Amino acid sequence: MRRAASVDLPTSGCTNMDPSPSPLFPLFADLRGRTVLVVGGGPVARRKTEALLAAGARVRVGAPRLIAELAALAGAGTIEHRDGDFAEGWLDDAWLAIAATDDAAINTAVAAAGEARRILVNVVDDAEASSFHVPARIERGPLQIAISSGGGAPMLARHLRERFETQVDEAFGALAALLTRERERIRARYPGLRERRRFFERVLEGPLLQRLRQGKALAAGRIFDAALAASSSKAAHGSVVLVGAGPGDPGLLTLRGLRALNEADVILHDRLVSAEVLALARRDAEFIEVGKQANQHHVTQDRIHALMLQHARAGKRVVRLKGGDPFVFGRGGEELEFLRAHGIAYEVVPGITAALACAAYAGVPLTHRAHAQSVRFLTAHAADAPDPQSLDTLDWRSLAAERQTLAVYMGVGGLDALRERLVAHGRSPATPFALIENGSRPNQRVIVGTLGDLPERAREHAVQSPALLILGEVAALAAELHWFGALPLSASRLARAA
Ligand code: SAH
Q: CB burial class (10 A; 0-12, 13-18, 19+) of residue 458?
């Protein structure tokens, strides 16, 4: 394992350390029959030589002395040995070179000579001097997982390798070997890319891997044959999966949601869905943002319906990706009604709704034996509602009851009206609130205070959408229980005053 490049650099200044270097280009090289020069005759050179031989390379080892194992390989004619100090001619016909001596001057000379001849050189333990890196890797038969930190954090790459080592067991090697053997049959049966991909998903999600894990090769073969023979007509029909993307932190996406994103052909996503969640989706899916602007709800909702229908009817797997949970102020119900009416198959994957996420990330338990026995989710979008009287349809008397928590969605514009009605119906102006903007995201802000000055506080801090209001006795707990992101805003103030 290489050490961090900085370890090898002079400590005066860091001129070589570009703060945002371009990433390395990963590649798996076919070295069969190709000459690779290894400079050095010690244990490191031996390790590199063995790895190169395993890849079918013709290995030329140059060094004045070879350890016994290398000498034996040279004696058997498995490798070519060049005796003496490094000479440029050793690079003749080479495609790659590895400098594995413990003499920095020689390693540098190899790197320079390689550069002049456009031969990529890896200098062991010196990321800066290397024009190619050898990644940390996990091998399972023909399957290889290579990990690189770009030379900057090799210990991190090693750590990840250890994690994968335990997660990707030997059965994956057997699976990769099986799929490699059957490649032609699979292609013949499913010439189209989309059908082929679906076949693979069926096979990979089924019991095949489990049989291989149990060492039941025969049973595995039968499962594979059955999957190959199975009709793909069902798969040819499109479908829609309504997926809740959660509030922003990609860690809050469900595993099922992640799988749907990985299988999607088309992803229709809201503006609220974070870039981090979208980054987890299949790269070659078609992404369509269907963010709804205020005042255009109906037009755009029809358009969303039309897009779902169009793509599902074209046989694609559509993911309708929504912020939070699709069934909490997300119009998920309307979309399912539409799909059902048009005979399109659908599934729903719940998500962590904003109220749950904001409460958790602000340290506000929504219920608490001492403070609140119930919680209610409501929306008070007076500002952008088509009907400004919509607040009046709510049962304010019951909403104003004590010892309950209100989680108010889309509330930024309607806070004055909200305070007025709650106080008019008996809720104390001293009731604590926590207003959470960008909950669970790196830029989360929490503003705390009491109902009496709620709208003023929100204006003072210029709270923007998306923000969620938690109102009730429990909100006071944010001051003590907060753990994520910036301090609650009134707490930092008190701290300054103290
Ligand atoms: N289906 C979504 C809600 C959509 S309505 C869900 O289950 O969460 C949009 C409202 O949700 C926003 O106006 C805001 O009140 C709230 N919201 C969504 N994501 C949020 C976040 N990360 N932080 C704070 N509020 C959020």
A: buried
Identified catalytic residue from 8, 216, 292, 384: 292
Q: Is 330 in the pocket of ligand 1 (CB under 6 A)?
A: yes
Helix H, strand E, coil C: the string for 244-267 is ECECCCHHHCCHHHHHHHHHCCEE
C-alpha 93 to ligand 1 mean position (Å): 62
For residue 467, the tally of other CB atoms under 10 A from its CB is 23
The larger pLDDT score, comparing residue 215 to residue 20, is at 215
225 catalytic residue (yes or no) = no
Choose the weakest-confidence range: 175-184, 218-227, 384-393.
Answer: 384-393
Token code pair at residue 300 = 């755009």
Cβ of 361 less than 6 Å from ligand 1? no
The catalytic position among 125, 126, 265, 270 is 270
Helices (H), 182-322: 183-189, 193-205, 208-213, 217-229, 255-263, 275-278, 297-313
pLDDT at residue 5, as a whole number: 35
Closest residue by Cα to atom 2, ligand 1, is: 324
Q: What integer pLDDT is reported at residue 298 of this predicted model?
A: 52
Q: How far is the CA of 230 from the centre of ligand 1 (A)?
A: 43
Distance of CA 158 from the midpoint of ligand 1 (Å): 39
Nearest-CA neighbor of 173 among 195, 144, 153, 150?
Answer: 144
Task: Assess contact for 353 and 328: CB atoms under 8 A.
Answer: yes
**pLDDT computed for residue 284 by the predictor:** 86
pLDDT of residue 297: 54
Residue 84, phi-psi category: left (phi > 0), alpha (psi -120 to 50), beta (remainder):
left
Q: Is 292 a catalytic residue?
A: yes
Task: Please determine, for residue 436, whether its predicted confidence score (pLDDT) is greater than 70.
Answer: yes
The chain-wide mean pLDDT, for the chain, equals: 88
* CA-to-CA separations, 234 to 79, 190, 199, 436, in angstroms, rounded: 55, 14, 11, 45
Residue 70, pLDDT score: 98
Question: Ligand 1 atom closest to Cα of 248?
Answer: 22
**Long-range CB contact pairs, 4-12, < 8 A, 24+:** 4/127, 4/151, 4/152, 4/153, 4/154, 4/155, 5/126, 5/127, 5/128, 5/151, 5/152, 6/152, 8/125, 8/126, 8/127, 8/128, 8/129, 9/128
pLDDT of residue 15: 41
